[in-house]
Design goal:
CATH topology of chain A: Rossmann fold
Radius of gyration of chain A: 17 Å
Distance between the termini of chain C: 35 Å
Strand content of chain A: 25-35%
Helix content of chain A: 25-40%
Shape of chain C: globular
Largest sheet of chain A: 6 strands, mixed
Strand content of chain C: 15-25%
Strand order of the largest sheet of chain C: 6-7-8-3-9-10
Number of domains of chain A: 1
CATH class of chain A: Alpha Beta
Mean pLDDT of chain A: 88
Largest sheet of chain C: 6 strands, mixed
Strand order of the largest sheet of chain A: 6-7-8-3-9-10
Number of strands of chain A: 10
Shape of chain A: globular
Structural class of chain A: alpha/beta
Chains: A alpha/beta, B mainly alpha, C alpha/beta
CATH topology of chain C: Rossmann fold
Mean pLDDT of chain C: 87
Distance between the termini of chain A: 41 Å
CATH superfamily of chain C: P-loop containing nucleotide triphosphate hydrolases
Oligomer: heterotrimer
CATH architecture of chain A: 3-Layer(aba) Sandwich
Number of helices of chain A: 8
Number of helices of chain C: 9
Low-confidence stretches of chain A: none
Helix content of chain C: 25-40%
Largest interface: B-C, 32 and 43 residues
Low-confidence stretches of chain C: none
CATH class of chain C: Alpha Beta
Order of helices and strands of chain C: EEEHEEHEHHHEHEHEEHH
Structural class of chain C: alpha/beta
Order of helices and strands of chain A: EEEHEEHEHHHEHEHEEH
Chain lengths: 233, 637, 253
């Protein structure tokens, strides 16, 4: 059965302050969908809310039609959703190899280490270095490779291009395209509009904790004007 | 006979061996503390009690069930570890989002409860536990005699330490642990059950302490307090090494043991204090510890602080006068001896509250100011024959100086480290008091003369004495009240809310902390000096760590950060001691229980909760009115 | 100074390393007196690190910082405040356990000689009270004067923080993402307050909201990957292809 993620009227709080005010969107099987929006709009929070990492959330998150909002974070991961956080979340006290093998397998069919190293050859010689001694680009590849190993088919990627040089960004872009052809379902949070434009099937614009607009990938260029005003560019 | 630097070589090797053995225990205990702290951000104050439970467990197994050493080595840690798991699931779990100090207070309470219960069942004197048959005897190594059991303890502890290191640093399980120490949220998001991992980690850390306890049983006397004193040294070890790395904890533990052993050989007088001197030096040179530290994570919400503005100056003065009148009239109905004792402790608690409540620097060593001031005051009055006012002045000044020096070192760290540093310094003062010639050692100073105040007022007359104590209490309390309400007090509160922001506004925050700490020490010294004159005794009780725990208890029970909380807390605790004295060790258990209940259920303390309650009741009708007004405006439009 | 100009703040070869990664890499940055200067850049560009270095919250790995031409690289945060360089924090930094009025009064203590007054009462000092009243009024906080700062809304906390900072009458005001987390109405208000504050002092702000930057700043520095990419007015900066590329990743830089 193909994977879909449907989010309905999702609200979420950091402590006392409410940051998501009813998000509605869906990601269909095999799609790449982006959440675009300015800083503080609630994009990262949405991913964290899906993973159950916030103090409080309400609404609906359905995975293949099954409600998962009540599940504990570790349980959500085991249902096949993998999360690649902002700033990569590479563990300093773990070697590259340990970082790569850390997330447990949640389903059969995850990539083998050999396949991951084929995808990111840079990591091959660095397997025994400390995780945070890698360059920013290598860390991002490690963060991506780490979740491909688990067998999860839905990937939540939070700003994978942040702070990276253009040549690395292009490489990450190629990787995401390749993952799409391999059938992964991807929800991508981006600030880098150009990067997102070339990849996604659909875009959602997030503002003040809500979806304010949905833009099909094909219509993207024509809407760049209104997009820039949303993003405050 | 060969000597090395004037010390017979046999003595030197013997002390080195002893140092190595002590070091082995420091290493095993600080290792467990580091693992627990890494995962849970809790300094496990019950670690010493759990070590004791291991030793006691072995003793019980042998004497009641006839189960010997080798089985005890497995059974006792399992049982204590299981208890640890229950503690984590029932109690500690509720504290992870709070300030780290609450974890420390709760485990301190648990330690008191456990120690109290065991003292009641077992008596506080030590019991021997014999060395197992297979490890009796020893070998002549040519330069020294090595008892087999000691060799076994060193070997076993090295294996245990390296084994722990291997598991944490080299296995998959260890990778989960390290990752969860850095970022538990993300590890959860990868599908790992972090809460269960935390539970098991605590259980394992606790079991490790119990295992050390079983190993220790044949070497040291098995007694209910064997862990408490050891734990304080281990805290000093932790401050020296930093809780950053497993190997760092192991190395520091052995290193400190060896330094202690060498000191015992070359300069025995300093052997009990050398650890604390090393700690002071490390604080000066490398405040983060030799092996770095896990940086203290952002502190949780300070739940204790009141969300209510302070009352006006007039209201405050009114309350103060009422309290003063009550205290003055109290001897008519209450036994004056009780009142005086309670007022002295209340002053002590209020002084403590000045830094703990308003500066959020929770000291675990305030007994050093109370006790040392008492000794100096007693000495000046008794041996020098000076009048009481000068004796009290001398005691207070001593405490202030001690406060300045220890504070100058301690404020380099904050939060739980500050608590550990102050506790360690207080223990150093305790050992000095135990050994110094003028303190009378175990007996203390007795028959301190009360004398003639200003050469005029005879303090041996009860009414005069009562008035004198009342005046000192009210004076000290008034001073604290003014300090708290002054611009200085405002800055202090601001610093405890947000240190960096206060700095950015131009306040040199460490100077404020130092002044507050010194003032607090001086006022605690005033209480201690007065206590020496009133009770005519200065003894080790007043410098012991349990006294530091008592003042914490009074302040937290009454309401930390409230003006009258410590006063209320002190009266309750002193009353409990007076009226529950017949229950013996159960008083300690009750103290521990109060800590646990306070931390779990009412962190604002009695007075704090009352103030909150009162304000909620007043605010509720006001809120309704606002709503009504809004409705009225809406309907008009 | 060789070129005759003395800057409110100037850095030379300023760097900050975090475990092998240069968050700020050899930056030469000049903050002209009485300018309204914004530092922008995509996430992770090193803006906040630069800001923390300038405000002495972090020590630099290399380089110097000058204030009015004097080397201040080794000074502490309080020492900078005494030189009238004051910063705000990204996560609104109010003293939660004090009332709104008490927060503002706190900032007024040093200039009234009360910073080390141990036994007096602030309520006896008319000067402080009047200044606090004036500031409360100016920032629209009068009706919240007796509210505990911790229970204010997020937007009001930011306003209070700005009021507390301006109570010091700093010559140089450093604002760390003053609009972060604010709603539309609050953004307008805070923009207005910053503009007023900037009339007679130097202001440096790190900000993500480009509308705000365009509206406020006369000079803009664009940072990318720890280095300065461009500097100039909004029109100049926004017309540069490499800047847009850094932001949108569209063109090849």
């Amino acid at each position: 059965m193909p994977e879909t993620l449907t989010v309905g009227n999702l609200e979420a709080w950091y402590g006392e302050s409410k940051v998501l005010h009813g998000m509605d969107f869906s990601v269909r099987a095999g799609e790449v969908v982006t959440l675009l929006g300015r800083n503080g709009a609630g994009k990262t929070t949405t991913l964290k809310a899906i993973m159950g990492l916030l103090d409080k959330r309400s609404g609906s998150i359905a995975l293949n039609g099954r409600e998962i909002i009540g599940a504990a974070p570790y349980d959500i991961a085991r249902k096949g959703i993998a999360f690649c956080p902002e700033e990569r979340g590479i563990f300093a006290s773990l070697s590259v190899r340990e970082n790569l093998l850390l997330p447990p397998k949640v389903a059969a069919g995850g990539m083998t280490v050999a396949q991951i190293l084929e995808l990111f050859p840079n990591l091959k010689e660095r397997l025994d270095s400390q995780g945070t001694k890698l360059s920013g680009g290598e860390q991002q590849m490690l963060a991506l490779g780490r979740i491909l190993h688990t067998g999860a088919r839905i990937l939540l990627l939070d700003e994978p291009t942040e702070g990276l040089a253009p040549v690395i960004i292009r490489q990450i872009g190629r990787t995401i395209t390749e993952l799409k052809t391999l059938g992964f379902t991807i929800l991508l949070v981006e600030q880098n509009v150009g990067f997102a434009a070339g990849l996604a099937d659909r875009h959602y614009i997030v503002e003040l904790g809500r979806i304010v607009e949905e833009i099909p990938g094909a219509a993207f260029e024509g809407r760049l004007g209104s997009l820039k005003s949303y993003l405050g560019l | 006979m060969t000597t090395i630097l004037g010390v017979p070589s046999a003595v030197l090797y013997g002390q080195l061996l002893l140092g190595l053995i002590n070091g082995a225990f420091y290493a095993m205990l600080s290792l467990g503390l580091a693992v627990i702290f890494g995962m849970m951000n809790i300094v496990n104050f019950a670690h010493g009690a759990q070590y004791m439970m291991g030793a006691m467990g072995a003793w019980f197994l042998l004497n009641y069930l006839g189960i010997g050493y080798w089985w005890a080595l497995i059974l006792a840690p399992l049982a204590v570890g299981a208890i640890g798991i229950v503690i984590e699931m029932l109690l500690l779990r509720r504290l992870y989002k709070l300030d780290h100090l609450y974890g420390m207070l709760l485990t301190f309470g648990l330690a008191l409860m456990v120690q109290g219960m065991f003292s009641d069942w077992f008596g506080s004197s030590g019991q021997p536990y014999s060395i197992p048959q297979a490890l009796m005897g020893g070998n002549h190594l040519g330069f020294m005699f090595l008892p087999n059991y000691r060799a076994w303890v060193i070997a076993a502890s090295v294996v245990i330490c390296l084994g722990t290191w291997y598991v944490v640093e080299r296995t998959k399980l260890g990778a989960y642990l390290r990752a969860a120490t850095e970022n538990p949220m993300l590890v959860q998001a990868f599908g790992i059950r972090v809460p269960r991992m935390i539970t098991l980690t605590y259980g394992a850390g606790v079991a490790l302490a119990a295992l050390a306890g079983v190993l220790a049983a044949p070497i040291y006397q098995v007694s209910p307090l064997m862990g408490a004193d050891l734990l304080i040294v281990v805290f000093a070890v932790v401050v020296i090494g930093g809780m950053g790395s497993i190997m760092g904890s192991i190395l520091t533990g052995f290193l400190v043991g060896i330094i202690e052993g060498l000191t015992k050989a070359f300069y025995p007088e300093a052997s009990t204090t050398v650890v604390f001197v090393v700690m002071a030096v490390v604080l000066l040179i490398r405040p983060a510890g030799l092996f770095g530290s896990k940086p203290e994570a952002a502190q949780g919400q300070p739940q204790s602080s009141l969300s209510v503005p302070a009352p006006s100056a007039r209201t405050q003065n009114l309350i103060f006068l009422t309290v003063a009148a009550c205290l003055a009239a109290a001897p008519i109905v209450v036994y004056p001896g009780f009142m005086m004792k309670a007022m002295i402790f209340a002053l002590f608690a209020c002084a403590f509250n000045l830094v703990a409540g308003y500066g959020r620097l929770v000291s675990f060593g305030h007994a050093m100011f109370l006790g040392s001031a008492g000794y100096v005051c007693g000495h000046v009055a008794k041996t020098w024959g000076l009048p009481p006012e000068l004796a009290i002045l001398a005691g207070t000044a001593t405490a202030a100086m001690l406060g300045f020096v220890s504070g100058w070192l301690a404020i380099r760290r904050s939060g739980i480290y500050f608590a550990m540093v102050t506790l360690a310094f207080a223990q150093m003062v305790y050992f000095v008091a135990l050994q110094a010639p003028f303190t009378g050692g175990e007996d203390g100073l007795q028959a301190i003369p009360r004398g003639m105040l200003f050469g005029l007022i005879d303090l041996s007359r009860p009414a005069n004495l009562y008035t004198f104590v009342l005046a000192i209490f009210l004076g000290g309390f008034f001073l604290i009240m003014r300090l708290v309400g002054s611009p200085f007090g405002r800055v202090l509160k601001a610093i405890s809310d947000h240190d960096a922001r206060a700095q950015s506004l131009g306040f040199d925050t460490s100077r404020y902390k130092l002044v507050a700490f010194t003032l607090s020490a001086a006022l605690a010294g005033l209480a201690g000096s007065t206590k020496a004159i009133v009770s005519q005794i200065a003894s080790l009780t007043d410098v012991h760590w349990s006294m530091s725990g008592e003042v914490l208890l009074m302040t937290f029970l009454g309401g930390v950060g409230t003006l009258y909380g410590p006063l209320v807390g002190a009266f309750i605790v002193v009353a409990m001691q007076n009226y529950l004295a017949a229950f013996g060790q159960w008083v300690t258990v009750i103290h521990g229980l109060i800590f646990v209940v306070c931390v779990l259920a009412f962190r604002r303390g009695i007075v704090g909760e009352l103030i909150e309650f009162w304000h909620r009741r007043r605010r509720a009708p006001a809120a309704t009115q606002t709503v009504l007004r809004k409705v009225a405006v809406a309907t008009k439009e | 100074m060789t070129d005759g100009a003395v800057y409110a703040l100037e850095t030379r070869g300023l760097s900050r390393e975090f475990g092998g990664f240069f968050a700020v890499n050899s930056v030469n940055f000049r903050l002209a007196r009485n300018s309204m200067h914004a530092v922008i850049g995509p996430n992770g560009a090193g803006k906040t690190t630069l800001f923390n270095l300038l405000t002495k919250y972090l020590p630099p790995s290399a380089g110097t910082i000058l204030h009015d031409g004097h080397d201040v690289t080794r000074l502490s945060m309080p020492a900078m405040a005494k030189r009238s360089v004051v910063r705000s924090f990204q996560i609104s930094a109010v003293f939660a356990g004090l009332t709104v009025r008490e927060n503002i009064e706190l900032a007024l203590l040093p200039e009234h000689g009360l910073a080390w007054n141990l036994l007096g009462r602030i309520s006896r000092h008319r000067g402080v009270l009047d200044r606090a009243d004036a500031l409360l009024g100016r920032f629209g906080l009068s009706e919240y004067a007796e509210t505990m700062a911790g229970s204010l809304s997020y937007g009001r906390k930011r306003v209070l923080e700005l009021a507390t900072t301006l109570a010091l009458e700093p010559k140089v005001l450093l604002l760390d993402e003053p609009m972060a987390g604010l709603g539309h109405e609050d953004i307008g208000r805070v923009t207005q307050l910053i503009r007023e504050a900037g009339r007679d002092r130097t202001v440096l702000l790190v900000e993500h909201n480009m509308n705000v930057v365009a509206e406020l700043a006369d000079t803009i520095t664009v940072m990318v990957r720890g280095e300065v990419l461009a500097e100039g007015s909004y029109a100049e900066v926004s017309s540069r292809a490499d800047v847009m590329a850094a932001y949108t990743g569209q063109a090849h830089a």
